[in-house]
Amino acid sequence: MKINDVILHTITKLVVFIILTFGVELFLSGHNNPGGGFIGGLVLSSALVLLFLVYDIETVEKGIPLDFKKVAALGVLFAVGTGFGAVLFGAEFLTQAFSTFNLPVFGETELATVTLFEVGVALTVVGTVVTIILSISEDV
Amino acid sequence: MLTITMAIFIPFLAAILVPFIYKWKPRMIGWFVLIVPLVLFAGLARFIPTVASGMTMVNAIQWIPSANIHFTTYLDGLSIIFGLLITGVGSLVILYSIYYLSSRESLSHFYVYLLMFMGAMLGVVFSDNMMVLYVFWELTSISSFLLIAFWYHRKQSRYGAQKSMLITVSGGVAMLAGFIMLYAMTGSFSIRENIAMMGEITGHSLFIPAMVLVLLGAFTKSAQFPFHIWLPDAMEAPTPVSAYLHSATMVKAGIYLVARFTGVFGGDAVWFYTVSIVGIFTLFWGSFNAVRQTDLKALLAYSTISQLGLVMSLFGLGSAALNSGYSENSVLYAQATFAALFHLVNHSTFKGALFMVVGIVDLNAGTRDVRRLGGLMSLMPVTFTIAIIGSFSMAGLPPFNGFLSKEMFFEAMVAVRHLEFFSIGSWGTLFPVLAWLGSVFTFIYSMIIVFQTFFGEHQPDRLDREAHEAPVGMLIAPSILGLLVVAIFFFPNVIGDYLLRPAMAAVYPSLPQIGQAMDPIKIWHGPNMALWMTVGVIIIGFLLYISLNYWRSLYKIGPLRWNLDSVYNGALTMVERGSTLLTNTYMTGYLRHYFVYIFGFFLLTVAGTIFFVGGFTFDFSNDAPITVNEYILVFVMMVAGILMIFVSSRVTAILLNGVLGYSIALFFVVFRAPDLALTQIVVETVTTALFLLCFYFLPKMKKEKVVRASKVTNGIIAISAGTLVTVIALAVQGNKMFDSISSYFENAYELTGGKNIVNTILGDFRAFDTMLEVVVLFIAGIGVYTLIKLKARKGGRDVED
Q: For residue range B497-530, what is the model confidence (pLDDT) as tens digits?
């Protein structure tokens, strides 16, 4: 696909950052508002898919030199690994904990271990979705 | 302090590290791996005094409490013997493999499989929970499969791997069924608790079926007749693997199981007869067949089969001791178990050494065929010495450890004749006769190993390589085993007092004092029946060995050539053909046919079930009122759905599909489920992008011409499937089988600190689901990637068909 659409290129450059920001926001706010690892990961990967559609694969790979298979594998390891983290503290597998901390900039903040688990989920989603789309699109 | 639970997991953790170390220092990988069994061996050895003083250790971790499955590890006399064998022989085998395998092999795979096996094996012997034991049990089968198929470009390796896998795994599944039956009887998966409840279950109707199924698992794993056929083919594995898995450890898992479950089933006549008769016949059959082998490794494989049969039969006889409490008689029969445990240890030492010797001969002379070998004594003096020690020990000659356990074996077999239980009568004489015959053949093949390989005429032109002695490093491991063989002969009671006596208490949990009542092992036990039997074995064995060429043609007689292997191969071909036929009838390659099958099956089962249980009851009183918005949405979706059938271009169809998806998202918005709405929208967007990608490369859509009759059938199936789903949706409200689970999430904020209940359910309450979903997603992604990317590569390793 050789499309050289200037408007699309320009707008994409802008929009991708908006989508990415939105994805991160969704991910972080997940504990108390709509969002979370899965949806955050999906939004992040949709931004990447948009990049792949508008620019060609080589260009994007130059900008984001990531092996998305490894991203997915890392995600799975993270998700399973945080489960074992609980075992280390003597709790049952996948037990989550939370507590509020008084952080210098953010003030009173709640930190939960489930966020780490969600990081794994998000990474897996991003890695898998992009891997699937890339392998299908490269198979020409 | 090393706990047993940790000991099980250390090999697995090390296996994860292996690929990284391999990348860093490919040549040193074996030395790094060697650390693992050494540390474990030292750690386990520290428990010997504890265990010898009669103490046991239990370490329980809750795993799936709702199903009574706990990760309970249990250390007692029996499991520590196996643990020491696994780690001890494991260390030597890894040391040996460092020199055996060239650095061009895929060493990281090899050591990952080997460590995986080691962990699984430790799991088998230390687990108290039957379900956990089963998981590890099958894991040993899988790692054995991977190791046998290590040289997968050879057809024979793949064949052997498949054979061992099919036989041992199906036995394992039978064993699982047996375990579940035990659970049905006692309500516990714990082996110790089952043993404690032994008296209550003996008369139960499931007792015998459970016993038979558990024995199936044990017999397939330990290569007992008629399941022994996989072991010779497993010899396609690299020699260190054969030495480790197929003689010293894995095949003994079945023996372990029999010893462990003696506490549950022992004392019953069926157990006594099945185990001892299968064992004694395997002993005879294995040794008889070993003599005709010309490949040294195949010979050792059959010899392993027969020795496993020997140990098995001794455990069978020993179980008689449980029949009538503690008495002089029970001590007499318990001697058999004592001999079994002793021979178990001895066998690991001399057979491990012999396998390593064969590996050295194979590597440094280029062949394992005894017809081509000969006269290696002067060329390989060290190897020769170890071979003598190993073979003579196997043949049961002094001053080697095999002599001691062989004498105890004969004594036990002679004692059977006086057995008063189980109405054995004059049939008991069959035991010493078969045992003696088996030993004669054992003597013959032991002599074949030594004399045909190392004596006689050296024929360098018939060897692939110029024969020479192995490098020093390669000789260390077999030398240590050889030294052990001799050392155990002179100091047998070190093992006897510290390992075997505590193990006796583990095999006979209801007779804890029995271990102490055993006589110490004596090197010279006087001119009794057993000694005369040994003298007979030596004389007759020697005569038969000399005349080998005259009577070997015996093996070519018709019924002897007709063997179980051809039965196995025939069955395999039949299954393959049958499944091909069956598959070809329904795999037409047309998606619409598959839909017909899927929905037809769905209709039959679901509608049928609902009809039979009377699930068609409706109750609309609790339903929420339907608003105008919802009517409109449903109308839009229905229009889109119906239109989709009739449109002729793909793009329109995709757009209509999108309409459906986004309408569902709107529904979620209406019902205040923003999370779901968001997810739905993004998924819809990403799938549309995917569709567009695929689209670009598809040919133009053509309307196919379908016969009217099948159109009608398809229409009927489609409409009824739709109706069924609708009816189910409507009937759900009318059938409340369980309480609502919503109360479970009532304190979500207090428990998790999260205000978004969807997320707390996903991440906190039901994180296990989410975790596995993520894993599934990942596997699906890898699946797509491999399907598309990894088309058969050209070049690389040639694979024989």
A: 888 888 888 888 877 777 777 778 887 777 788 8
pTM of the model: 0.80
- Sorted by where each begins, the domain ranges of chain A are 5-139
Chosen from B3, B20, B777 to mutate, greatest number of chain A CBs within 10 A: B777
Can you give the pLDDT at residue B4? 83
Q: Give the residue from B771, B784, B15 showing the smallest Cα distance to A76.
A: B771
Which residues are within 8 A (CB) of B57 and not within 5 positions of it... i.e. 6 or more apart?
B4, B47, B50, B74, B75
Residue B789 confidence (pLDDT) above 80 = no
Q: Is the predicted pLDDT of residue B120 greater than 90, yes or no?
A: yes
Q: What is the pLDDT of residues B22-57, one digit of tens each?
A: 888 888 888 999 999 999 999 999 988 888 888 888
Tell me the chain A residues in contact with residue B789 when contact means C-beta distances shorter than 8 Å: 135, 138-139
- Chain B residues with CB within 8 Å of chain A CB: 62, 674-675, 678-679, 682-683, 685-686, 689-690, 693-694, 696-697, 752-756, 758-760, 762-764, 767-768, 770-771, 774-775, 777-778, 780-782, 784-785, 788-789
Q: Residue A113: which residues within 8 A CB-CB, separation 6 or more?
A: A82, A85, A86, A96, A97, A98
B1-6 long-range CB contacts below 8 Å, 24 or more apart?
A: B2/B40, B2/B43, B2/B44, B2/B46, B3/B59, B3/B73, B4/B57, B4/B59, B4/B73, B4/B74, B4/B75, B4/B126, B5/B59, B5/B61, B5/B71, B5/B73
Touching check for A12 and chain B: CB below 8 Å?
Answer: no
